Amino acid sequence: MFKKTSKKFFVRLIFLTILVLSLITVLKKYFPNQFTYHFQSKSLNYATDIGNLKSCQIRRLESLPESFSVIIGHAYGQNTSQDGYVASNILKFLKGNRNNIKKIVFTGDLFSVPSLHKWKRLFNEFKLTEIFIAPGNHDVLRPDSRDVFEASHFITQDYPYEAIIGGLNFVFDDSVVSKWLVDKKVQGQIADSKSQSIIVARHHVFIKELVTFANSQSTPTPLPSVDQFIKSFPSKKSVTWIMGDGGGNKSLPRLTCHSFGNHRFIINGIGEVENDTVLIIYEGDIFSYVI
User: Fold this and answer.
1) Cβ atoms within 10 A of the Cβ of 284, count?
2) CATH no. for residue 261?
3) Three-state DSSP class for 154?
4) Integer Cα distance of 206 and 209 in angstroms
5) What is the model's pLDDT at position 30?
6) Which of 117, 133, 259, 265 has its CA 20 to 30 A from that of 56?
């Protein structure tokens, strides 16, 4: 009796599995946009609370507006050869939308192995578009790479500095110099800003809860917890921190968003894998877009 019941159960289970798989196939065929969006949106945003950090969502654009600015982290993707340039999907995206992109923000690690030739090529290819860079370790960590970065003459301001992009107030930080931490200069820049809402573009994560999402997980100095950071950060302004040291391989999420108090923490970067995502600045807000 038990064997017959068990056999019937497994037959029904197999039948139910086949039915569910068939239903998914039909949904994919007749409702591709809704089905794809539903599942992709979960993979794009790491929606899990971490301690005192609450998950948040970045609204996703299904199509690009006529005019926008873009934020790109870890632009070289997997292009690690000596002659490697920015990732192929990033180059294709930028060239395909060069007439629509107003400004480009790179949050570090543009080239795996930087050179003056590569910097010149980048700025010449997109000379009609204003480019901003928050440098990463690949860009400036070695003495020779920092010399090349500064000798390019395209970087004309000392860090940190403020700029307005798409109606949003940005502060650009050099997190390599500060060994990932947020130093007093950045705090002062935020405090002195006339805006009550600031976006800080930098490369490295700076609170320990977020290290698990970073490409570089060996920190040069101990990082504070989010509670410790908030206590040492006097500004009551709304601050969004965008960090480009993420998404470098398929085991990392394409995009994460967490919040604590008046702070929002976004990690994003290119890995040349499925669902690689950039951030779009449009009408005074930040969106995600799969390239």
Assistant:
1) 9
2) 3.60.21
3) coil
4) 9
5) 43
6) 133
Distance CA 171, CA 164 (A): 9
Report how far residue 80's alpha carbon sits from residue 71's, in angstroms, rounded to the nearest whole number: 21
Query: Does any domain span residue 28?
Result: no
pLDDT at position 161 = 93
Residue at 127: amino acid letter: K
Domain total for the chain? 1
Asked whether residue 34 is domain-assigned, the answer is no
- Prior bond of 160 cis (ω within 30°): yes
Domain range enclosing 254: 44-290
What does pTM read for this prediction? 0.81
The answer to whether 135 and 108 are in contact (CB under 8 A) is yes
pLDDT digits (tens, 9 = 90+) for 250-288: 999 999 999 999 999 999 999 999 999 999 999 999 999
Mean pLDDT along residues 167-182: 94
Instruction: Confirm whether 202 is domain-assigned.
Output: yes
- Domain-embedded: residue 15: no
Residue 143, Cβ density class (10 Å: 0-12 exposed, 13-18 middle, ≥19 buried): exposed
Highest mean pLDDT among 63-67, 78-82, 110-114, 122-126: 63-67
Among 231, 240, 233, smallest CA distance to 197 is for 240
Across the range 47-59, mean pLDDT stands at: 87
> DSSP for 25-45?
HHHHHH-HHHHHHHHHHHHHS
